[in-house]
Amino acid sequence: MSKVVLTCALTGVLTDPAQHHVPVTPEQMAREARAAFDAGASVMHVHFRRQSPGQGHLPSWDPAVALEIAQAIRESCPGVIFNQSTGVVGPDISGPLACLRAIRPEIAAANAGSLNYLKVRSDGRWAWPPMMFDNPVEKVKAFLDGMAETGALPEFECFDVGIVRCVGMYLRSGLYRGHPDLNFVMGVESGMPSDPALLPILISLLPPGATWQVTAIGREEIWPLHRRTAELGGNLRTGLEDTFYLPDGRKATSNAQLVEALAQIARECGHDCASPAEARALLHLH
């Protein structure tokens, strides 16, 4: 069987622990990471949360918090590959860069383009105030410079087809000179839909030699997209950041349940989950 890299996205940016089973504290993060690690995930995609009582639904860019969480996860999962979120709205990226320098992750999210981040409820009301997730080229460059400084592989997050094409331009212009690793983020309502039929088009737009994965956001309808990703040779990602529902429609109560379901799909498509050492080789990590 060939090997596939499986990433677990443990928490997300604003998922409320009062409503969902997302970990917040270093101890909770380490426990959830270990269960996902045992289920087949070799990469942990991590957001940091505020640690004060009642504040666990809010993000934190405190390097001390980042370091404590990173150390807890690394100790509980020997050899695990750490993937840090970096997404912020606005030009001030000092918080994510401070965390990068504090924990030196092997991978860091590099949001590769801007998106009107929108969602409309069934009654026509906005689910949240319309916002722009702004990632202009100068902001992308500043992140790439920080990742080069700390030795992190940029994982280019692509929310729409045009953003995939932008990554190729970053390479051709010399803005980025390393190994291209792309993440097709599918399921944001104002971005690419979670439609398996899109995958051949997206794959055709990949830069030469690129590795790729899919982040599928949604309910049980996303599982056919995961299966098609596995069939086409992409790397896989799941976790409570992206979905709360298992393939049979039951609500997941842990990250490990989601990883187990995705690992089973990988096996059915002829893949074994890569170990951390195998994942490092597949992703060209040093």
Plain-language structure description:
- With 286 residues, this protein is α/β, with parallel strands linked by helices.
- It has one domain: TIM Barrel (Alpha-Beta Barrel), CATH 3.20.20.
- Helix content is 35%, strand content 18%.
- It is built from nine helices and twelve strands.
- The strands form three sheets. An eight-stranded parallel β-barrel has the order 2-3-4-5-8-9-10-11, surrounded by six helices. It has a two-stranded parallel ribbon with strand order 1-12.
- α1 (26-39) runs parallel beside α8.
- The radius of gyration is 17 Å and the shape is globular.
- It starts with a strand and ends with a helix.
- The mean pLDDT is 96.
